Structures are given as C-alpha cells and as structure tokens.
Amino acid sequence: MNLDVLARYGPSLVHGLGTTLTLVAVSIACGGLLAIPVALARLSENRVVGSLAFAYVYFFRGTPLLAQIFLVYYGMGEFRPTLQSLGLWSFFRDAVNCAAFTFTLNTAAYQAEIYRGAIRSVPRGQAEAAEALGLRRWTIFRYVIAPQAAIIALRPLGNEIILMIKGSAVASIVTVLDLMGETRLAFSRSFDMTVYLYAAVLYLAVVEVLRRIWNMLEVRLTRHLALRA
Amino acid sequence: MADLIALLAPGPTGWGDEILAGTWLTIRLALATLPFGLAVGLLIALAKRSQVAWQRLLGEAFTTVFRGLPELLTLFIVYYGGQMLLQTVVRLFSERYIEVNGFVAGIVALGLVFAAYASEVFASAFKGIPNGQWEGAAALGLHRGQTLRLVILPQLVRLALPGLANLWLILLKDTSLVSVIALNDLLRMTSVAVGNTKEPFFFYFVACMIYLIMSIVSSFGITAIERWAERGEQRRAMGPRRIAIGAAPS
C-alpha cells in the first residue's frame, strides 16, 4: 500500500467521483424524461412514428458509447456557426456538457426499451377495465398502467444506472475530469498503479451501494405483493 | 456530399482501406476474445457451483469485481498492470525492455469482463438442467468429466445461447475501448482519418454505421446458430410417436 499517493491524490479522486455521480444522475434523469415519449412512440400504431423511434433506439443501442461521444464532442464542432447562431455553442463547447448530452441520448434509448417492455407486460384487461369504467386515456396511463409497469421496470432500470456509472468512464477520453479522468491524471503524474486500484474500489463501492438501495426500493415497492405469514 | 464519399475511397487519397483494416482488427479482437471469455466464464460458473467454500467465494468475488468495474478501468489495469508485472519478471533475467502487446491486453481485459457476465448466464443455464440428467449419467457409470462433457454441456449450450448472444453484441461494442491503448481498431483508424481530413461528424457516423452493420450481421448468425441448437428439440418432439409405431430395434 502506498499511502502517500492516497494522501496526495485522494481528494481529487473524490472530487472526480462527485463529477461522475452528477453526470450520471443528470443523464439518467433527463434520459428518463426523453425515454417516455420514445417508448410511447415505439408502442404507437402509427408506422412512421414507430419506425423513427425504432431507428433511434437501434442506433444508440447498437453503437459503442465511445463512438457516440466522439460523434457529439468532435462532430458538433463542424456545426459551430449554426450552433452559435442558435446560441447553443457555449453548451457544446464544454466537454462535460457533450458527455451529459451523449449519455442522455444513449440512456434514453435503453430506458425506452425498458419502459416499453414494462408497459406491454401489464395485462390488456387492466386497460380495458379502466376504459369500461370511463376513465380518460391519460388517467388510465397515470393511475392504472404506470404503477404496475414501474414494478416491472425497477430492476432493469437499476441495472441500466449501474451500466451508466460504468459507461460514464469513457467521458474521461474527451478530457472530462470524472473519477476515471482524475485517476488517469494522477497516474500520468505519479506512475503509480495503485491509483487505478483506489479508483476500482470507489467504483465497486458506488455500484454496491446502489445495488443495496435498489434491493430496499424493490422490497418497499412490492410490499403489497409479499405473502403475508 | 460527393467529396465526402470520395474520402472513403481506398488507396492513398481516401480512408476506406484504413477504416476497413481497423474493422478487420475489431472483428479479429472480438473473435479472439470469445473463446477465452467463454472458457473462463464456464470455469467461474463451475467454481460457483463447487462444494468447496473458497472456490465459491472466488467465483462470486470474480463476478462482483469484473461486473462492477468500468470496462475502461479494467483495460487500463490489465494494460499498465500487466506492463509492470512483465517488466518486473523480465528484469530478473535481463535488461531488455519488453512491451505488453495491446492486442493481448485487449483480449485479457475484454475476456475477463465477458467471463464475469457469461458465468452468470452459465449459472442460470445450469439451474435449467434437471437433476435427473446428473443422476442418470451417474447411473450409467460416467464420471464427472464425462458427465459434464457428454450430458450436461450439450444441453447447457442451448439454454445459455440467448444470453451469450447478447454478451457477444456487447463485446463487439466494447472492443472500441482498445482504441484508447493505441490499438488500430475501427474507432482509432476513424480518429486518424478525422485528424487528417477534419471531417469528424461524417467519419464517426460512418464508424457507427459499420458497428451497426457488424451487429446486424451477428444477429443473422445468432439466429442461424440458435436454429441449429434447437434442431434436436424439434426432432425430439416428433420422435417418441414414430418409435412407438414402427422402428423395432434391428
């Protein structure tokens, strides 16, 4: 164990961890908002809308996250005049924003598939019964379909967040100083392998904490389904 | 648009041949990782079922670590850690400087991650095989190795195939990470092209399309393999009746 390295680079690693968590939290939240219309579009009976959503999902799930982030980070530079006239350039100039933008689009595709599967898993009879009661479409979705779908979606959503935490490490390649970025910086200065091991411990700890929170959440959300002794 | 297409032409003026060479390396890397990852994954799955406590613990620890770490971090640890380990060993014998092969580091890192996920796929496939199969094999006097090879594995493959197919598609995308350790894969050759032509959007989009084509082709291959693995199932469904009617043992 090399404690000097930990004392020297520990604070920046923790700071990087904060960046990673913020990046992931923002991406998952924005991606979740974007995912709902995409999921509904995938379920839509309109052919054009359905295939557009399918193409979006297929593209973001079928290509590497690293390639996507390069496409946004380097590719947006080409559209600088257009972006400047739209007042968006200051957003895309910053690597962190590009990373958050890419992750949002990426996780929206994955989350859309999760929500689509969850919505479809709710038996048709539920919607039909609600319709027979004279509820409006939105009310049916909000109070009948969504609560049941949420239980199905919970576990895959937890997996998706873990995948995003791991995947967010590629942001370090486009100069973002997340946990991985700080670690690479510390390694390039100290040439001490142990910084990578400290980063590994931090990543594992985050994933483990999230897994436990998710287990508790699942117990809580499904408590009405549990068998009473 | 036409001048952009011209940039994809093979030869000294375009980047088509460089990108194809990168694609070829990506395919080779993924294909080389597959057997290594499958073998380690199966071993880990067996360790998790073991009756020896430390083997079970080792199996669980392996899965937890390599499923929890970012693939990029695993790659760096294998690449730089392997470099230092190799250097220390070599220094015992000579003063030569030996560099870790990026391709091998890529296989090891991606293979470890693949194995961690594959071991879970195998573990649940094991659960899908009825106990009677083990007992029947034991009754026939097969020993453990034979039981596994002749009775269990052929059935395991069929049960594990959908999960493994998914992992293959993930592996194909994860290969892009080796571009960071200066291996000339598809993504890195694309970056080289971008550096020379200053057309990032076009070239990275082309790279994404090539990744998509690779996964579409894989999907066709997977469907064919699944059909091949299921062929016994269909025959067995029709089988018993035919035996009952005719086919006396000759």
From TrEMBL, chain A:
Residues spanning the membrane: 20-41, 53-76, 161-181, 193-214
Membrane topology label: Multi-pass membrane protein
PROSITE patterns for the chain: ABC_TM1
Single GO MF descriptor: transmembrane transporter activity
InterPro entries linked: AA_ABC_transptr_permease_3TM, ArtM/GltK/GlnP/TcyL/YhdX-like, MetI-like, MetI-like_sf
Gene Ontology, cellular component aspect: ATP-binding cassette (ABC) transporter complex
Subcellular localization: Cell inner membrane; Cell membrane
GO annotation, biological process: amino acid transport
Keywords noted in UniProt: Cell inner membrane, Cell membrane, Membrane, Transmembrane, Transmembrane helix, Transport
Occurrences of domain ABC transmembrane type-1 (ranges): 17-214
Entry-linked Pfam families: BPD_transp_1
NCBIfam families: HEQRo_perm_3TM
Family under the similarity heading: Belongs to the binding-protein-dependent transport system permease family. HisMQ subfamily.
Protein name (database record): ABC transporter permease
Automatic annotation (TrEMBL), chain B:
Keywords associated with the record: Cell inner membrane, Cell membrane, Membrane, Transmembrane, Transmembrane helix, Transport
Transmembrane segments: 26-46, 100-118, 201-225
Classification via InterPro entries: AA_ABC_transptr_permease_3TM (IPR010065), ABC_transp_permease_HisMQ (IPR051613), MetI-like (IPR000515), MetI-like_sf (IPR035906)
SUPFAM superfamilies: MetI-like
Cellular localization per UniProt: Cell inner membrane; Cell membrane
One cellular component term from this protein's GO annotations in UniProt: ATP-binding cassette (ABC) transporter complex
Molecular-function GO terms, alphabetical: transmembrane transporter activity
Membrane topology: Multi-pass membrane protein
Pfam families in the cross-refs: BPD_transp_1 (PF00528)
Annotated CDD domains: TM_PBP2
Domain ABC transmembrane type-1: 23-222
Gene3D superfamilies: MetI-like
Protein family: Belongs to the binding-protein-dependent transport system permease family. HisMQ subfamily.
Alphabetized PANTHER family for the sequence: ARGININE ABC TRANSPORTER PERMEASE PROTEIN ARTQ, CATIONIC AMINO ACID TRANSPORTER, MEMBRANE COMPONENT
Annotated protein name in UniProt: ABC transporter permease
Classification lineage: Bacteria, Pseudomonadati, Pseudomonadota, Alphaproteobacteria, Hyphomicrobiales
